[in-house]
Structures are given as C-alpha cells and as structure tokens.
Amino acid sequence: MKIALGQTIGTPGDVRANLQLMRRLAREAATQGAALLLLPELFLSGYNIGDAVPGLAEPSEGPSAIAAGAIAAEAGLAILYGYPERAAGAVYNSALLLDRTGRPVANYRKTHLWGEFERAQFQPGTATCLFDFAGARFGLMICYDIDFPELARRYALGGADAILAISATTAPYSVVPRKLIPARAYENQLFMLFCDRTGGEHGLDYAGESGVAAPDGEILAACSREEALLIAELDFERYRQSRAGWRFADDRRPELYSG
After folding, report:
1. 252 three-state secondary structure
2. Is 247 a residue whose pLDDT tops 90?
3. Structural domains in the chain (count)
4. Smaller CB count within 10 Å for the chain: N or C?
C-alpha cells in the first residue's frame, strides 16, 4: 500500500483555505498512486490559535467532514486529518479517517493532552482506536500519545500492522521523529507513520521530519523541515511473515509490569 504524508502547516484559523489545501494534496497524492493521505494534527483549524479553537470545532459528521468526504471521493483515496471535534458539549483534539468514497471509517480523540494549552481547550479522549482498513489493521495516535509506549503496545497486541500518528510536534522535541518513531516500530514489530506540522505558527516552530519506520526500525522515508508530500510504500505481508516466526509479544511477562 502506498501512503502519502502531507507535511504542511496550512492556514491557521481558516478552515476553507485548509480544505482547499486538502484537495490539492489529495489530487497530488492520488496522481502518485497513494491509497491514503495523512495530514497533521488539527490540520483543519490550525494548532496554536488559542481561544479560536472552540469556534472552529465541528461534529465528526459536520460540514467540514462532508466537504472532506467529497474531496476523498473526488480524488479516489482515503484521507486522515486532524480537526477540533465538538461532541456532547465538549471539544476534542480528534483525527477522522474517511475512505476513498468519503465514508467515515474511524474517529479518534487524543487521549494524552500536552501542556496547559491543550488541557484548557480540549477534553481527553477515553478510548483507543484500532480498525481494519484496506486489508490491514491500523491504530491511531495524535502527537503526545507517541510518548506513551503502553498505547503502541496495546495496538500491537490487538494485531495492528501499522500505527498512523499525526502530530504538531515542535522543534525542541525532534527526538520524537528521530528516536521514538523507530523505537515504537521496532519494539512492536509494526509500521509507524508520523505526519507532522512544519514551519512557524504564532510563535511555535514545528519539527517537521515526518516519516515512516518499518517494523525492524529502519527509516523507509523521511522529510526534512520543509513542506513536502512524502510517499512511502508499505509491504504488510512481508512483515506479517516475519512476525509469524518470532514476536516480542510472545515473550512478555505482564505479571511483572503492573502498577
């Protein structure tokens, strides 16, 4: 499966402009044969936009999701993007996956909120997100979730072939794409895909360095800090066969890890 990672910043605070950018990137990704396009954390609204977040929050089946579904159907590929979700009076930092027909497949609410800014704007999600799509099993993460190895291990134990992680990781934390992404891939024997924001946004400087790590920890593809559309091809069957011969999970001692 070919997967595209759109490393971009978009236009903070302008949902319409970001939908236009989504359309352009979706067309380009489809032209290059991608079956899925990843876009960063809070792609639709912008990340560091302060109190503007609640006003841009929408339900998971709101107008922007309908527009994004039309973009996916027009381009003929699935799209995963970050957005502020409004549900039952709360706002969540969420990721929505739409299939190539525009139908919603999965919606994940970030479970680990980072810093006072996020905790002031969002409620934490209360569930993980593991699902089957296009012949493979995926888990979803958003940014700070990556720092918690328990979540990646939960997905691995659930049979995930890959984890899709969208992010707004800033430059001081480039250890995430450089070290944590390949580590999570290796220790769980699955693909890790990391799609970050890039550039500057109201005083924040993003790390960029989006990329893909294979189940053996090898970096298959990576960006610098510039805006880019990265294409990676994932051979799921090859690594399923390697896991059939030997898995870290088979040697776990969970009775030693509790508490």
Report:
1. coil
2. no
3. 1
4. C
Task: Please name the amino acid found at residue 56.
Answer: L
Q: C-alpha angle with apex 110: 201 to 152, nearest 5 degrees?
A: 110
The model scores a pTM over 0.90: yes
110 catalytic per annotation: yes
59 located within any domain: yes
Q: Answer whether residue 259 is part of any domain.
A: no
d(CA 93, CA 48): 12
CATH code, domain with 122: 3.60.110.10
Q: Is 233 a catalytic residue?
A: no
Active-site residue flag, 118: no
Domain assignment of residue 258, yes or no? no
Per the residue annotation, which of 85, 110, 118, 195 is the catalytic one?
A: 110
Strands 104-109 and 130-133: unpaired
Share of the chain above pLDDT 70, in %: 100
Residue 257 lies in a domain: no
Indicate which residue of 129, 143, 195, 223 is catalytic: 143
Q: Which residues form the domain of 150? A: 2-243
Among 76, 97, 83, which Cα is nearest to 19's? 83
